[in-house]
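[Target chain]
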Amino acid sequence: MKVCVVGTGYVGLVAGACFAEMGNDVICVDKDNDILNNLKKGIISIYEPELEPLIKSNTKENRLIFTDNLEYAVKQSQICFITVGTPQNDDGSADLQYVYEVAQNIAKSMNDYKVIVDKSTVPVGTAEKITQIIKKNTNFEFDVVSNPEFLKQGAAVEDFLRPDRVIIGSNSKKAIDIMKNLYAPFLRNQHPLIVMDTKSAEMVKYASNSFLALKISYINEIANICEKVGADINNVRLGMCADTRIGTKFLYPGLGFGGSCFPKDIKALIKTAADNNCECNLLKSIEIVNNKQRQNFIEKILLKFNNDLKDKTIAVWGLAFKPKTNDMREAPSITIIEELLKKGASVRVYDPKACEYAKKIFKEKVEYGKSAYGILNNVDCLLLITEWNEFRNPDFDLIKSLMRKPIIFDGRNQYNKDYLHNIGIEYFCIGN
């Protein structure tokens, strides 16, 4: 099938590469020529496992091409995906200017019937507004479809190639049939393609992300109670997750959620509710608990050092908001490191993929290491912020020998408390 994808950010690149991998002819469009030139060479600015080889192989086979010519891409394609960003406004709402601009430009470029697919995360009612914009700018027939993405950073290619479900929001049989054909190769695992109205499809994304964020804030709040009453959150979690109604996913105590989706989507849903005179106290509590979780971690560190971090050197393992990505948007590491710096600490950091991203945030305020152990010499404590695999089973004897004071603050509950205490390492975690 002939597909164009407007926007070569995280969602657009993954979607374009995966559609091309299934034999479709895909044109990815972007305004930034530097980005386009790098993509043509197989160079991408984001780290996502399996994505770079997909782009290189499909570019080589000419199934995936990159251009700044939106008119050409639209005219060559039957299906046009909108995958541009929807950044957050000051009031929490989604900024849709880029979505609407692309919709207008697609309309002006049309030469026959098109399916215009909104894959960006947008508030309820956006498909209807896109329809109005396109009607004003073309006389050709078209259908607007809502097709939200559910990609986990660090596993986005796998999620796209083998989705749990595909949501299609449309009341047009013609558009639905086209979308079913497009997605058929991705659904051989018998997972469903679910058809619904556009408003419901738009709501599914916000409702799903908010529920997952709720689970994270819930287990963190239980962890905080466990610390006060002397219970062990790791045992409590095991007991909870044995209940099949509850399950295991997104119930890990830690430093809370970050990234480009959960924080933004919760705020957008809260704003949507407020605009429609709907109370949403539970959604508001998710944010409160998440923000407090980072402060709780900082308070543990301050308590250990009697609220005095001057002349203290602190090592940080992990900067990205989660493993297998270099994305630091809304990452807990930012809040924690900035507070440590304010308190007078010197901070050394290491992350397998996010150090270059971090330099844009912290600049020269912190010291950047080239290896995990390389930042530990004579430090007063180590903070585990992001649970990369290489941090899971480190050489604790080496860690102890390098540090001035063998103290670990584990923000992801990765290590065995009793073992570390037995070998002489002070250990602090979440909910224990």
About this structure: The first strand starts at residue 2 and ends at 6. The mean pLDDT is 95. The radius of gyration is 24 Å.
